[in-house]
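Review session, final week

We close the course with one last complete record, chosen because it touches almost every idea we covered. It is ATP phosphoribosyltransferase, a protein from Streptomyces bugieae with 282 residues. Go through it on your own first, then we will talk.
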Amino acid sequence: MLRIAVPNKGSLSEPASAMLHEAGYRQRKDRRELVLVDAENEVEFFFLRPRDIAVYVGSGKLDIGITGRDLLLDSGSPAEEILQLGFAGSTFRYATRPGTAKDVSEFGGMTVATSFAGLVKQHLAENDVDASVVRLDGAVETAIQLGVAEIIADVVETGTTLRNAGLEIIGEPILKSEAVVIRGTGAPDDDPKVRQFLRRMQGVLVARRYVMMDYDIRVEHVEKAVALTPGLESPTVSPLHHEGWVAVRSMVPSKDAQRIMDELYDLGARAILTTGIHACRL
């Protein structure tokens, strides 16, 4: 069986399980369940702490896993990212009191507090900065107030928490993270079970980004219409019972669907419908 690590809690957990469910895999009903066997799909799921997943996958104990890019890089494990999943996006940045520093190049001799010590040490080394790193588990913004560090490095979404603590974001982002599928470095590229899993997950990603659009249009306007709805390969065009009319079916990006419908209507298209896509293979 394919052995897959899945986050058991936190911001990664529910979106990951939802995506796996959409991909046709069984998911646990009891959050206390740590191992789930999906015999029909020949997969065994292990629900682990998100921070530990890269370690298990990198050691070869598990075949692949879902975790955050930040957690993967922070772990230092011999594992690599093989698919971006498009959820749990975040930005990892430095912050400090106004006037302390403007850029990472000014951190020399200072102390940086963070929950991602490995990631920060690597970033400081890449910038040739000699600074100390203190690892804390959560609420790192209080480290400056309590005198533990002059700088913090943390996940930033809106920046409200930092501003409320009297801190300002400085320098360029350390990392932009999101949920990713990982495998051990050096694992074979041709594992058919891994390839099938990735196809399913890619199918969910495409299904979430596209809708199926159907409409009727006069034959003299077909070329202009299909220019608006080119599809992935090309649209399906079928003759209708009424002479001079055809039916067109095509996949279109869901974010553009309303605009495309307006333009098709102005072009003379009628009976314009959009339907969701639950799964696909490209």
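Two points worth writing down before the exam:
The mean pLDDT is 93.
The longest strand covers residues 168-177.
Good luck, everyone.
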